[in-house]
Amino acid sequence: MIAEPNDLTSALALVGDTFAIDELLASHPSPGDIAPYYHQSLVLYLLLHSPAGALHFALDGDDFSAQARIIVRHLDPLRVRNVLEIASGVGYNAVRLARRLPGVHVTGLDLIPLHVRLARLRACRLARVKFEHGDFHRLPFARHRFDGVCAVEGFCHAHHLDVALSEVARVLRPGGRFVTVDGFLLAPPKSLAQSARTAIRLIDSAFAVSRTWTLEDLLATADSLGLRAVAVEDLTSRVLDNVERISRMARFCLRRRRRARAFAHVLPRSVIRNEVAGALLPHAIRSGAYGYHAVVLERGVEAPAPWRRDER
Q1: Going by C-beta distance under 8 Å and a sequence separation of 6 or more, which residues neighbour residue 35?
Q2: Are the beta carbons of 129 and 109 closer than 8 angstroms?
């Protein structure tokens, strides 16, 4: 009988008893890993996480709609008319935004064509909701096109934070807001204990994230681009119940070492790595490495950009 891990070091030991951690860390995630990750993981998300199609964590145990309500709370006072959701997945949040913001047109943009097709099916009866395929590092929209932009656990895939935020600033009208709800590091990796650094690399690799940004990275880069922080909400305590539920499932699998090793040879890589990340994530949060926050950024009258669009 293997004891339940009660801290990050013992959680890493549980992972290491089943898989070779050095092999898991051998390849660094790249932007090209994002689409395969979601293709391989989508069925797992729908079966074990959210049958309704939420590709993000729940707050307060099982409330997957909480992030959409937070976004509405920060956008509704602006009397928005056009809202863009980047990394919109299969449309879970975009549909809820449209229903909570009467008269508002919501556009979802996602990197993965399968997501776009499924989202269009979900919203086929909602004339105010549409979905497009594209990369949020190069938004296919005109300057000042939107009153609000939002992202739920999608901006973690920004491999160039300044590029992605510059695009958000470009498509936002002056006075418009960007609301992102995501996990962030609370300190630079070099300042963390070795166990936390190893866990961060494993979690990033599992989720096809090339680099998890610190909260300070986001705020400082946004400020340099004319996006002023108007609110930062710490939601870490509210996400822990859902993270723990996922962790229990992951630990259940990892404790059955022989079966887990056998499955590693036949299951998609992302499924195995999700298992590893699930076992580690609550302990990484409790160690102080990770936090889960809603960040609200407001565009000034003139937001500078580090390059001209026609130069890219």
Answers
A1: 111, 112
A2: no
Burial 274-288 (b: 16+ CB within 10 A, else e): bbbbbbbbbbbbebe
Query: Could you give all domains of the chain from N- to C-terminal order, each with its CATH number?
Result: 8-298 (3.40.50.150)
CA pair distance 56, 67, nearest whole angstrom:
9
Residue with tokens 């339940």: 4
**Per-residue DSSP letter, 243:** H
C-alpha distances in angstroms, 44 versus 40, 53, 125, 246, 261?
8, 11, 27, 12, 19
* CA–CA separation, 284 and 29 (whole Å): 19
The whole-chain average pLDDT of the chain stands at: 89
In this predicted model, what pLDDT tens digit does every residue of 41-72 receive, in sequence order? 898 899 889 999 999 999 999 999 999 999 99
Is pLDDT at 3 greater than 90 in this prediction?
A: no
- The residue length of the chain stands at 312
| H-helix segments, 128-235 | 161-171, 194-206, 215-224
Give the confidence band of 6 by pLDDT, cuts at 50, 70, 90. Answer: low
DSSP 8-class letter at 160? S
The answer to whether the CB of 180 falls within 8 A of the CB of 295 is yes
Apex 87 CA angle, 98 and 33, nearest 5: 160
Alpha-carbon distance of 232 to 295, in angstroms, equals: 5
Q: How many alpha carbons fall within 13 Å on the CB side of residue 195?
A: 18
Sheet arrangement for strand 172-185: 129-133, 105-110, 82-86, 146-152, 172-185, 290-299, 227-234
